[in-house]
């Protein structure tokens, strides 16, 4: 009888504990996965084709979001002409070269700087920067506040880029 009672009590404890675990798992859910946070290789290629078809013959740059998580966006950038040297004071820029080739000039000093908006300062040139040749598969991380410029070698330079918020200590706030 004692064995039957022990088996019954153990079964009851197991049932209760599995109910508690199930209840606990249901109340502390992981966030839902946003389907806009994924792009297959076919999605990337389709977006590239669409962007290239939509660009006007004299258009030097196009940017279009590919995946996102709220305000954080990874976008495809197509450069057919070099842009102006730039600084993003509050954001680092991370990019991977998907296609084409070019040149990156970064660091040094931005001359004739003009504030376009809170996240962008543009200038006429970079003095004293370092130069890197860019090709397919290269990965770039430009810290917030660092001047940079992309030159294009050949027909175009295509990047997958994302802006990342600078750490608070970079902004000089106490």
Order of helices and strands: HHEEEEEEEEEEE
**Mean residue pLDDT:** 83
Largest sheet: 6 strands, antiparallel
Q: Describe the global form.
A: globular
Structural class: alpha+beta
Calculate Rg over CA atoms: 26 Å
| Strands, total number | 11
How big a fraction of the residues is strand? 35-45%
Structure in words:
This protein has 174 residues and is an alpha+beta fold. The chain is 23% helix and 43% strand. It has 2 helices and 11 strands; from the N terminus they run ααβββββββββββ. The strands form 3 sheets. Strands 1, 2, 4, 9, 10 and 11 form a 6-stranded antiparallel β-sheet that branches. Strand 1 and strand 2 (72-79) form a beta hairpin. The model is unreliable at 1-27 (pLDDT under 50).
């Amino acid at each position: 009888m004692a064995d039957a009672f022990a088996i019954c009590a153990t079964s009851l404890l197991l049932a209760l504990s599995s109910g508690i675990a199930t209840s606990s798992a249901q109340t502390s859910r992981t966030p839902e996965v946003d389907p806009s946070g994924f792009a297959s290789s076919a999605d990337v290629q389709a977006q590239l084709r669409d962007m290239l078809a939509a660009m006007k013959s004299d258009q030097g740059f196009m940017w279009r979001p590919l995946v996102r998580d709220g305000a954080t966006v990874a976008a495809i950038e197509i450069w057919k002409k070099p842009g102006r040297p730039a600084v993003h004071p509050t954001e680092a820029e991370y990019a991977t070269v998907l296609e084409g080739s070019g040149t990156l000039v970064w660091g040094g000093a931005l001359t004739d700087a003009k504030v376009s908006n809170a996240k962008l300062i543009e200038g006429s040139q970079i003095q004293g920067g370092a130069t890197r040749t860019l090709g397919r598969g290269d990965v770039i991380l430009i810290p917030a506040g660092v001047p940079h410029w992309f030159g294009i070698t050949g027909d175009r330079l295509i990047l997958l880029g994302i802006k990342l918020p600078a750490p608070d200590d970079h902004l000089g706030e106490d």
